[in-house]
Amino acid sequence: MFEEFNTINDVTDQIPARPGMNDRIRALREESVSTPTTLSIERALIETSFYKLNEGKYSIPMMRAMNFMEICEKKQIYIGEQELIVGERGEKPKAVYTFPELTCHSEEDLNVLNTREKQRYLISDEDIEAYQREVIPYWTGRSQRDRIFSRVPGEWKVAYESGLFTEFMEQRAPGHTCLDGKIYKKGMLDFKKEIEESIGKLDYFNDPEATDKEEQLRAMSLSCDALIRLGERHAEKAEEMAKQEKNPERVQELIRIAEVCRWVPAHAPRNFREAIQMYWFVHLAVITELNGWDSFNPGHFDQHLAPFYEADIKNGLLTREEAKELLCCFWIKVNNQPAPPKVGITANESGTYNDFTNINIGGVRADGSDGVNEVSYIMLEVIEELHILQPGNSVHISSVTPNRFLHAAINVIRKGHGYPSLFNPDVYIQEMLRSGKSLQDAREGGCSGCIEVGAFGKEAYLLTGYLNVPKILEVTLFNGIDPVTGRKVGIETGDPRHFTSYDKLYEAFYRQLEYIINLKIKVNHYIDRMYARYFPATFLSVITDDCIKKGRDYYNGGPRYNTTYIQCTGLGTITDALSSIKTHVYENKSVSMDLMLHAISDNFKGEEVLRQRILNYTPFFGNDDNKADDIAVRVYNDLFALIDGRPNGKEGGKYHLNMLSTTCHNYFGNVMGASANGRLAGKAISDGTSPSHGADTQGPTAVIRSLGKLDQVKSGGTLLNLRFLPGLLRGDENVAKLGSLIRSYFALGGHHVQFNIVDNATLLAARKNPEDYRDLLVRVAGYSDYFNDLHENLKQEIIDRTENSAF
Amino acid sequence: MAFLFDIKRYSINDGPGVRITVFFKGCPLSCRWCHNPESISCRTEKLYNKNKCIGCGNCIAECPEHALTLSAGEGVVTDFSACVLCGQCVEVCPAKAVEMSGRCFTEEEIMDTILKETHIMDNSGGGVTFSGGEPLMHQKELKQLLIRCGKSGIHRAVDTSGYVQCTIMEEILHYADLFLYDLKHMNSEKHRYWTGVNNDLILKNLRLISDHDKEYQIRIPLIEGVNCDDNNIRETLFFLDGLKNRPTVVGLLPYHNIAVKKFEKLGKRYLENGMQKPSEDRVGRICDLFKQNGFNVNIGG
């Protein structure tokens, strides 16, 4: 979706139009986009020699903080030409650290990463050798991943390997959180003061944990020092560079960088630029300390920056153009940090450089009023002009959000880069209230990663892995056996050929679901405790309320709210598969269960007539047809019943339901045979809570009404993908019409929607595999039609036409 | 009961806002470029989509009249002289390659579907559009539906050829909020050549709508070789200028031969007979002419 397209044409003498508002931004963007992603072993080397020397000498939290200090003290400092916002995780842009204490990549892993076709991470032979010599021998058997896999029960392992679920925490730290506004009011020195006060209040006489808490708090204080040191080192580097610099303008810029870095992160920022630099240092700290899932996120960045922007503009310290330039610099900084490389199953289910920083734009303020401000509009301009992979971004459209902002966002969406996505604060605030947050905390919260809600700056909301719901039905249909591998992966719920009614089948599915969810939760708890014990996040704890007050780590119940999510994938596929069996086996009785099972086992070989009948005569989810939608609601409610409210062992923390899939629906489809809805073996299952690909044939209003039947407030996020052709969004009038579609979905209780404004590649694929694209609406000439229904010549014409209108 | 061939949701080209369009079957005109040729006949018709057909042969075996044969390259061919439109081939087709176009919908069924779109109609300033075919051929059903929609506060547009008795137009126009009115040719003879009927009634009814201060939009299909010549455009302008009230929008719809496949599905041939896509220049010039005369123009409506 975000592939760079080559705009350079060496035939013309014209300077190619490179995105960016000025030379500086064009150059920085170009560097960010064209620099290949590399692996940096710097962190691993620093950490390994530190651990070799100090293992066992200090408490675990102190070891983590000292290690973090060691990295901040020893890492190479990078300040690029023309940069205004400074700081890289690695030695240079796109250099990604490894985290051997969590997952120690083998020599083979590194070679694969270096040479594979997609999402390559380049590494030199010398570095692989050094890794093999220094890093691998020490961490083998000591890494978190090795420990986890050496202890998980056999039945978990077999279910995991069959693709019934994934496990987020097996190689990346449970991360997934966002920041609120506190770092714009407090510097690291202020946090240190708070930590000292908390230590002062410890009750050594009555609290058996007092000593542990003191260790944790002292480690947190040291983590603040580490970040201050990182800031100072950037100041030193800038001063040193200023001495060497010939260009007087750049000298001034470097001096200014040094001034900013001497002030933040030690102190609270005083202006717009310091605020951005402050956040960036904090971001680097979080993603250097550990490799938490979904990177890190400034949350409502536009709202946090607005007071600085307004004051600076009023006092003549900043122009709108300068503010935009700084935001562009920031955007590029995020793009310079690809996700740490994954291995094994996790690499299959999440093959992307994207580290899922999701900047929330718009939305509501803590008092419920409209949060849109001038910075929000500048951010939309930045997104449109830069169109880079990261950071992800979303607009938050409440009933108090003005249409002007919604339409400005749609104008960016129609450029076809797939963002921003759209969220509904009116629903997600209810979601947070339902799960126990205060009204203010809920309003200050939002969405991060893909679609997950959380109380920003106050909550650990851990994603623990995706659940392959359609595969659980598959296993049920074969009485606990995975038909793809032949292995027993579930419990025996009976041979479905003997089930006398649809309800009996559903009951068996429910029992299987319960078994798998319990298996998942049991191991989640185990892994969760391992992080609490061995890998406290002492820096992240500083900036997450109420870790300082409680003297507890982010992973150990320190945050005010502690949520654990299981992400249930494939609602469309499971609904359609159940609907197919209900309709054809039990209601029309046109197919016996035996035949259905055979057809599924044989991937519908020789049963194309049956498959066509299923595809064309089954009520499918997404068509505003209660026959299918009722099934979706039932499955959704049962997932909720089995997951929501279960204790996660952390200070009253609970499990909640989530419905995202990211790219996991591809992996889950890969490990499945054919399904009863006519889906062929190996094909992707449905994404998020979207209808199965091609199953929705009644247009977008029918889709949103189907989705609206799910009580989305019960979840921690749902996901809807809609596909449109650029032509459908031509002209202001059609922008407003799409706006009203979004407003309608949100009025029906929708949590999230995103639009694929399709490109040529999709159209070509649609022509080749029409069945997968039955829902593709195209604008023809004065009217819209389904792409599939068009004459071949007209398809070609649309393909030719669209390219022009898309970019 | 109303005889329809389709109801389309999220319709964004049939009037203001997002609309739901109800397509009546049957039309007194038979325009050669008709985008919905299945709308012309007042009877049920059989549609066959070769692309969807998997060649299973179920329909051929099932047909009691033996009207179907498999032909290389063309798929299943219907001998329409033998076919009695019993619909058994539709029943047995797993791929929905055969469909019957046109069936009776109850008023309740139609209203239920329309009301499903309440949110989007409210949010977008949209409503319902009755189209066709010619909706005014179904005077009684149309009137009932217009009244029901009016009671529910739904904005009502009627998309018409205008070829209907003036008394019918006079009655219906009280229940509609907006007319989408086609003007195909100002010369009655040429109008008859291309559409099968002359334009007297059409112009008369348009005057009626205008005289009653009813809001209306004009839609002109621009077809090179049919109606794009300066003469016809000038006469169109002249006629519109002479009306008591002007249209709120003039929609210019440049011709495309998109109907080819639909004609094929009906087992009919599409005769282009010199109809051509107008050049961009031509469309631009016509657009400018309308604008210069103070009309609000929309291309590709």
Detailed description of the structure:
The complex is a heterodimer of chains A (807) and B (301). Chain A is α/β, with parallel strands linked by helices. Chain A is 49% helix and 8% strand. Chain A has a five-stranded mixed sheet with strand order 3-4-5-12-11. The radius of gyration of chain A is 27 Å and the shape is globular. Mean pLDDT of chain A is 91; it is low at 1-16, 779-784 and 802-807. Chain B is 33% helix and 22% strand. Chain B has helices at residues 58-62, 88-92, 107-116, 118-124, 139-151, 166-172, 188-195, 200-211, 230-241, 260-265, 280-292; strands spanning 2-11, 19-24, 45-48, 68-71, 75-78, 98-101, 103-105, 127-131, 155-160, 178-182, 216-222, 249-254, 297-299. The longest helix of chain B has 13 residues, at 139-151. The model of chain B has no long low-confidence stretch (mean pLDDT 94). The chains are: A alpha/beta (807), B alpha/beta (301). The interface between A and B is large, with 39 and 34 residues.
Quick tags:
heterodimer, A: 807 residues, alpha/beta, five-stranded mixed β-sheet, three-stranded parallel β-sheet, 14 strands, 49% helix, disordered N terminus, disordered C terminus, B: 301 residues, two-stranded antiparallel sheet, 11 helices, 13 strands, 22% strand, globular
Please write out the topology.
The complex is a heterodimer of chains A (807) and B (301).
Chain A lengths: L22 H12 L3 E3 L1 H13 L5 H15 L20 E3 L9 H9 L9 H15 L4 H8 L2 H8 L26 H13 L9 H35 L3 H16 L8 H18 L11 H14 L5 H16 L8 H6 L8 E5 L11 H13 L5 E5 L6 H11 L7 E3 L1 H10 L4 H5 L2 E3 L3 E3 L4 E10 H9 L24 H33 L3 H5 L4 H4 L10 E9 L1 H17 L5 H9 L6 H10 L8 H18 L10 E5 L5 H7 L29 H9 L12 E4 L6 H17 L4 E6 L2 H9 L8 E3 L4 E3 L5 H15 L1
Parallel strand pairs in A: 1-2, 3-4, 4-5, 8-9, 9-10, 11-12
Antiparallel strand pairs in A: 5-12, 6-7, 13-14
Helix pairs in contact in A: 1-13, 2-3, 2-5, 3-9, 8-9, 9-10, 11-12, 11-13, 12-15, 13-15, 15-16, 16-29, 19-20, 19-23, 20-26, 23-26, 30-31
Chain B lengths: L1 E10 L7 E6 L20 E4 L9 H5 L5 E4 L3 E4 L9 H5 L5 E4 L1 E3 L1 H10 L1 H7 L2 E5 L7 H13 L3 E6 L5 H7 L5 E5 L5 H8 L4 H12 L4 E7 L7 H12 L7 E6 L5 H6 L14 H13 L4 E3 L2
Parallel strand pairs in B: 2-8, 8-9, 9-10, 10-11, 11-12, 12-13
Antiparallel strand pairs in B: 1-2, 1-7, 3-6, 4-5
